[in-house]
Specification:
By secondary structure, the chain is of the alpha/beta class. It contains nine helices and nine strands. Helix 2 packs across helix 3. The longest helix has 18 residues. The protein is globular and about 55 Å long.
């Protein structure tokens, strides 16, 4: 009976993946905005500590926070980011929160990023991974050139939240082109619970199904993201992603 049911359904039954009890298996979150007052993330040190306590309660052992760097809006530099990191590290130690934190950046692909790649030392995750994002409105004309230059300079580019770029939703083959060009993909965990809308959730699930995701990140900016992150524990597609070995344990 089971064989006939599977035969006529036209699709094999999806195996069950054990749901998580917390997010400790991920170990490290690689995308967040926890340095106060320098981008659209947390506003002050108290909010930063509250969010970090939330991460610790979910089982994370390490955070790599990634403030925005945008030439025309968030004009952060390594000095600004690392100086802010020191303040947060000192506060964590004083508060006794059992978690470590480092910093990189989320670089926006604008007209000056290519020059930065060629002439500056950029902030990386784990010493080699370069997190970047693109416009939500239009795909950049120089995307593939920038990915090429990142690789030439010895970086391993990670495209942040690819499931959030709606212009690719009807051109899914573009995701494969981006990967073939040498970029890795970081999924926003909250996309799996529909936080960014039905379109992002659907694309996120398809990417999981097609084993296209390399890293998981919260992209946490504040309490609203933490609330959603707590709900992902019961999400079957997160369990499926974890079962594929997509973990940040080595970072």
């Amino acid at each position: 009976m089971g064989f006939l049911s599977s035969l006529f359904s036209g699709k094999p039954k999806e195996p069950e993946y054990p749901l998580l009890t917390d997010l400790s298996v991920i170990v490290t979150d690689i995308h967040s905005h926890l340095i106060p007052g320098i981008d659209d993330g947390v506003k002050d040190l108290d909010e930063s500590l509250a969010m970090i306590r939330g991460f610790s309660a979910l089982g994370y052992q390490k955070l790599v926070t990634t403030p925005h760097i945008m030439s025309d809006f968030y004009k952060n530099t390594p000095e600004i980011i690392l100086g802010g990191l020191e303040r947060v590290q000192e506060a964590i130690q004083k508060a006794g929160i059992p978690i470590t934190i480092d910093a990189a950046a989320e670089y926006y692909l604008d007209e000056v990023l290519l020059k930065k790649i060629q002439t500056e030392k950029l902030l990386t995750i784990g010493g080699k991974y370069l997190l970047f994002e693109i416009s939500y409105v239009n795909p950049p004309d120089n995307l593939y050139n920038v990915i090429f230059e990142m690789n030439v300079k010895g970086y391993k580019p990670i495209l942040a939240h690819p499931e959030r770029y709606p212009f690719y939703y009807t051109k899914f083959e573009e995701y494969y082109r981006i990967k073939e060009a040498g970029a890795l993909f970081q999924l926003n965990t909250n996309s799996l619970v529909g936080y960014y809308g039905a379109g992002a959730k659907k694309i996120a699930e398809r990417m999981v199904d097609e084993k296209m995701i390399d890293f998981i990140g919260s992209d946490l900016h504040g309490e609203r993201h933490l609330d959603a992150l707590q709900k992902t524990v019961k999400e079957k597609y997160l369990a499926k992603l974890i079962s594929q070995g997509v973990l940040n344990t080595s970072l």
